[in-house]
Amino acid sequence: xxRFSSRFVQNFQRFLIRDQEGAVxxxxxxxxxxxxxxxxxxxxxxxxxxxxxxxSYALDAAALSVAADLSTSIMSDDxxxxxxxxxxxxxxxxxxxxxxxxxxxxxDVDPDNGLITVDSSATLNNYFIDxxxxxxxxxxxxxxxxxxxxxxxxSRYDVELTLVVDVTxxxxxxxxxxxxxxxxxxxxxxxxxxxxxxxxxxxxxxxxGVNLGSYASTATGGLSTRCSTERDGSNxxxxxxxxxxxxxxxxxxxxxxxCSDSEIQPLTDNRNTLLSSISALxxxxxxxxxxxxxxxxxxxxxxxxxxxxxxxxxxxxSDTETLKFALIMTDGDFNTYYDLETLTKKQCKKKKxxxxxxxxxKKGKNDYWIEKSGWGYSGESSQRAISLCDAMKTKDIQMYxxxxxxxxxxxxxxxxxxxxxxxxxxxxxxxSALVGAFANxxxxxxxxxxxx
Length: 452
Description:
Layout: H1 3-72, H2 77-91, H3 98-103, E1 106-110, E2 115-125, H4 135-139, E3 143-153, E4 158-166, H5 175-189, E5 199-206, E6 210-211, H6 216-219, E7 227-228, E8 265-268, H7 271-279, H8 289-300, E9 322-330, E10 336-343, H9 345-353, E11 366-373, H10 380-393, E12 398-404, H11 411-419, E13 425-428, H12 431-451
Parallel strand pairs: 4-5, 4-9, 9-12, 12-13
Antiparallel strand pairs: 1-2, 2-3, 5-8, 6-7, 10-11
Helix pairs in contact: 1-2, 5-7, 5-12, 8-10, 10-11
């Protein structure tokens, strides 16, 4: 090969190499752009996934919050909508899609099954796919849409609870503890801000009798304007209505003085009314616990809705949408009871001098309700209390009891154990334990009616 030919071949080879290098550079540039786009898409998708997670969290929180409200209150659609929106604003305050999520918010309440379903959706702008306004039209949409749904159960049941509390003289040093414990029950079952509640509570303070306040005259047939003790007669351990067998004529007892100043409060869903009643508790007298248990039952019994009327009227036992509970508390032995005796005027005066009777003695032979002592688990007072508790259980009233004392084998503790349903007895040996016992019972009741 000549010298000229050799140089031509070398130059042609260099040209081919340079031509190949020129073809690779544009391809490399395109690959870089595609890698940026892919990475950008990943960022956009990641943003939308995170946004959906935020929306899902906020939706769950809102649904749970409203479900809790629905479990204790009757709410209108407007109130539910406002509560959901308020919860959204609290949990999505920094989210760019907040307004759109609220605008797309919807809910459905299923009262038959106790369910609330909440839905929402929103969109996010795609920042990286939109390169120069070209890629969004060539490679994908301008926004990513996302949505989620949440379904939460709430209680469709109403609750009626009677709080039967010992305000006898022995509780004088612990009355503030009892008030704190009782307030904790109200705080848990009827939280602050609750309106049109589904939970109603009655307060029944007892000592030697129960102070019926304005209900006394009607319940005793005009024989008392203040206090009532236990009932007697053929319906002693029943909840037969006062107007079927009036208190004071052989079916019940009446006293004009022997009870504390703490008045009964029938069923109410008014938190302030309950707290005021608890605040007014005072101590006095002996322990006729069976009287308190009886009147606690009457506040739950539909047979007494002619006495306890309006919002305080108990639901029918046949109402499958209402759950009934009793919380009974004592710090000692039930030791006082009443019997009807036929006495002459002279015999009556003797009873009166002994402090067993405090009314007027009439000429001839008349019936008088005589106060008697009956200590111990086998005593008349305790046995009458247990009979009442057993009768309440037959009406599907769930029984909780608290013994406030250090001796878990005392007669008072034994009565409370006998009155409680299985697993529902509590002993409290300190002030803090008393508050804790009441609070635990309230939480247990709350769990029962919310989960059903």
